[in-house]
UniProtKB/TrEMBL annotation:
Residues 1-52 are annotated as: Disordered. GO terms for molecular function: ATP binding; metal ion binding; protein serine/threonine kinase activity. The keyword Metal-binding applies. It is an enzyme of class 2 (transferase). Residues 49-302 form the RIO kinase domain. Pfam families: RIO1 (PF01163). InterPro entries: Kinase-like_dom_sf, RIO-type_Ser/Thr_kinase, RIO_dom, RIO_kinase. Keywords: ATP-binding, Kinase, Magnesium, Metal-binding, Nucleotide-binding, Serine/threonine-protein kinase, Transferase. The lineage of its organism: Bacteria, Bacillati, Actinomycetota, Actinomycetes, Pseudonocardiales. Belongs to the protein kinase superfamily. RIO-type Ser/Thr kinase family. PANTHER family: SERINE/THREONINE-PROTEIN KINASE RIO1 (PTHR45723). It comes from Pseudonocardia thermophila. It catalyses: L-threonyl-[protein] + ATP = O-phospho-L-threonyl-[protein] + ADP + H(+); L-seryl-[protein] + ATP = O-phospho-L-seryl-[protein] + ADP + H(+). This is non-specific serine/threonine protein kinase. The keyword Metal-binding applies.
Length: 309
């Protein structure tokens, strides 16, 4: 007669399997219930790896280490198409850190691209399905538009920065997020950070007003040499970085930059930009002979090689 096959627990007659309850894994990682793939500090790992990078030569303050972490510090601006957040990027264990402006185009269900029909002229995509989706404003199309706006702004800033125009340095572009040079200052005593004011927030005196107009017209000539217009120029899309005299005027919000040569609506966008910003300066006391929109429009059109409208 063959021997009975031994069971694995025959040597331990007192063994009784029992339920122990949920396993506490908090001791396995000192961060407990946090994401073990996340950074040891901050809100996320740096997005530098895998993103599209800004033009060279890069400013020395740009942090490219893959081990850097990003920390959200608050919202700088909210808008219909995008929100701008203040972000600190730093390398843990070192004193390397920098403030950045993170411009994030909104998710499809919240986005309202209400002006893009005219701007899309001359920006056709190769795939007809994608173009139809954007034209019909499907959810897929709005997602494509968000990526296009982010990519368009990043590309425009990269070109203009390389040309030496006064724009924030574009650090990187990752999907619908564009990381930009933060323009502002931090109080050494309180540690409070303030963004550079928009031109619309200021009340410059006569000399400062004239200097800001000079800076603006030089920047517009730089755009025109590229055959471009801002496309949505106003005192709200210009920053004034504190400094000597009136400060440094900086162009911002450039996703809708217009090819005034290739876009059939281009000359009209240029004329609207010039008329709107000249009106702001004249309303604040700049003499008409200095802020003459007709004269400036002719100069810019000649620079771009088009006929003004």
């Amino acid at each position: 007669m063959s021997a009975r096959r031994r069971r694995f627990d025959d040597d331990d007659p007192e063994y009784r399997p029992h339920r122990r309850g949920p396993v506490d894994v908090s001791d396995w990682d000192e961060r407990g219930d946090t994401d073990i793939d996340g950074p040891p500090e901050g809100d996320r790992w740096s997005t530098w790896d895998g993103a599209t990078h800004g033009p060279r030569p890069r400013p020395a303050w740009v942090i490219t280490e893959h081990g850097a972490v990003d920390t959200e510090l608050g919202v700088l601006k909210t808008g219909k198409e995008a929100d701008v957040h203040l972000l600190e990027r730093r390398v843990p264990g070192t004193d390397r850190r920098v403030l950045l402006a993170a411009k994030r185009y909104r998710a499809a269900e919240h986005r309202l691209f209400h002006r893009d029909a005219g701007y899309l002229e001359g920006r056709r995509v190769r795939r007809s399905r994608e173009m139809r989706a954007m034209t019909n404003r499907t959810a897929f199309g709005r997602d494509l538009l968000a990526g296009q706006w982010a990519g368009a702004e990043f590309a425009a800033l990269s070109v203009l920065w390389a040309d030496g125009l006064p724009v924030p340095y574009p650090v990187s572009c990752d999907g619908t997020e564009v990381l930009l040079e933060f323009l502002g200052s931090t109080d050494p005593e309180t540690g409070e950070t303030a963004a550079a004011p928009r031109l619309a927030q200021l009340r410059p005196g006569p000399d400062e007003l004239a200097d800001l107009w000079r800076q603006l017209t030089e920047a517009l000539h730089g755009l025109a040499r590229r055959g471009w217009a801002h496309g949505d120029l106003s005192a709200y899309n210009l920053l004034v970085e504190p400094g000597a005299g009136a400060g440094r005027l900086v162009l911002i919000d450039l996703p809708q930059v217009v090819d005034i040569v290739g876009n059939p609506n281009g000359p009209q966008f240029l004329a609207r930009d010039v008329a709107r910003i000249a009106e702001w300066f004249r309303a604040r006391g700049l003499p008409d002979h200095l802020a003459d929109p007709d004269v400036l429009l002719v100069e810019l059109a000649e620079e771009a090689g088009i006929t003004p409208r």
